[in-house]
């Protein structure tokens, strides 16, 4: 048996043993209410959900009501209501949390790539499949008696505005439309909805909660913390950057919950902002269910921000703003006194409770034993099953981005390396936990990049080179010696969770510590150009490697999850053709001169402020949003017979306004839904894979304006699809373009307007011009 065959056999055996270990013990009954003997109206499944929830709330005493307004809600034994824990995590797989416990018969769950890498596939169908798997595994854990809640506080859909943000890894990237699409797909997959169509099902497989609403993308930078930060945000930036993902989460995804953030926006804590929670989320977007605070955010309104003068005022501020449950015990501690002081009313409390119990009822937790209800057949065998683990591998494969491939350094030749030697160097090369990112649970399998590469190369040696990603202690001499004695060298560098995570923002955009020196010296010593693999969530400035001919290839692999080591090896050896594209701009080190606290998206040439993200940034980049190479060559062009611009007839009589710069525009709201529907048209793109390998390829459709006056973006992603093409195969990809949605921009006051005149659709190097004249 060859080394590669042995390695794969070992992996298969480990997987089988893990599977058997997960299922040796019998499952316990999950907590539920309304057994067979109950005749209370709130247990009557024939009644409307709202009536059932109202009936239950009416039976609670004041003290019992207040006790239910924290994330750890105690049992109400006299009514047969079990305890419930609202806080569960499932960002990229079921994770350790208060509400879910992977320490019983089930001791692992599928660990998908960190979101930033999954997003890089630009494949909504893949996103949906992974999120379906997460929802099923969460329900499986619950049905196995290892959970006290099914409300999953994910996804994180804050726009990755600043490359230093420690939690950017949790997000789908910097584009609000792409982030909104991910939000909707995540919610639909987790909650048991179809990928498209109606979201009005009364049943929930699990409950998704989009966070953190809104303008939250700073954790701890130079002493400025998320708890005290007051984000100064314009109406224009709120309208076209910070809020759209949450709008999509609610309107397109049908989310059953959202989470308000720690920070203030323009002086008001988001959890105490009636305009955000009640007017915007519940009113404009029609969110019909619960809103939670981030953990201890209610206490912070009084204790840190000083916005509320007394604890009871903080309680009143959030409940009257529209929040329902406090992650923490602050309302449970001060709620009764707030009521008795007249700062909150009985209806303030009851409204929140009706929203909360309605979610628990939609989850089937007041319908008798969940095992015998709609999702009762989802058991332990759905956790870590083969289908989900294959998805984890595919998500890692399809997200990996090839950033550089000089002189065909990749793919490596399996036949040549089978009898050659390879040195695997770097702190991220042989530690499986580093593949997982943050908010993770114990994975089903654990294979490091070095272990995976051993399956391809008989003579493989690992040298860590640095103590960790911080690389403040290194052994460059040992690494150089390994490089000189090997035929091939692969370096695994980047960041880890000590460099970027919740409450940790970066101060620098370069590789930490002595990593750059290590890479350069190893590259100088190696016999052939080396391969550099970067494991990180946020972007790093690797200009030195991009310009160094002794570094033949650069691969970004994010935090690729449980199957990441295998996926990386398959990409390096050409068993998978990389097709990922960067979901964020990679900025140069000089960008750190921009204060992280400056929330403006648009550039200000008068002060030298460069703007943020590909939509508004005016400066040099290391790599651009949407960049990525492949082992194949692709071409794109608009198919003239399929792309049909809209007829503008029938929408005359609109009132036009002119900006100070002379731009004439039309208000989208005034146009109305009917006119907007009539303007929709198809844009058809012919894409061809010119070989030499089969591959999956993201097709990105952008809108470009003739100029960037009036705060227009330089360009805007308006559609994307992923298509698999065999070598030399061509296909037509159709996008539906809605001018009211895709050709509009945000005016300074936040209104959506369409500018009169030319607009350009762009895919690859091809453009299609159309003119809007009402």
Automatic annotation (TrEMBL):
Keyword Secreted among record annotations: yes
Annotated GO biological process: arabinan catabolic process; xylan catabolic process
GO cellular component: extracellular region; plant-type cell wall
Keywords of this entry: Glycoprotein, Glycosidase, Hydrolase, Secreted, Signal
Protein location: Secreted
Keyword Signal tagged: yes
Predominant subcellular localization, coarse grouping: secreted
Domain Fibronectin type III-like span(s) in chain numbering: 697-767
Matches recorded under Pfam families: Fn3-like, Glyco_hydro_3, Glyco_hydro_3_C
MF annotations from Gene Ontology: alpha-L-arabinofuranosidase activity; xylan 1,4-beta-xylosidase activity
Leader sequence segment: 1-27
Top-level taxon of origin: Eukaryota
Family according to the record: Belongs to the glycosyl hydrolase 3 family.
Protein name: Fibronectin type III-like domain-containing protein
Species of the source: Aegilops tauschii subsp. strangulata
